Write the structure tokens for this entry.
Amino acid sequence: MATISTDAPIATLINVFTVQPDRQRALADLLARATEEVMQHLPGFVSANIHASTDGGKVVNYAQWRSVDDFHAMLDNPEAQVHMRQAAELAERYEPHLYAVESTHQR
């Protein structure tokens, strides 16, 4: 389960994909399948949450890794690379960045 906390020593990937609306479902399904088949079995995987925008033009992958090193090891994994190439082919653009949680607010 995702942990969103300023105290959690976790590397958070937020990858925003821009996609044609008719490809949004295929991309979201691909990311979910990649998580189930490959990513969740890699060392350091914590969680992944796939979001689809209501206008059909974006898909966001909010993923957490135990460390930056674990994230970079995933990037070098041949099985993960297959899925990343497939996602890149479906998207018009993608913007992956690692983030640190600066603050959280709840009611």
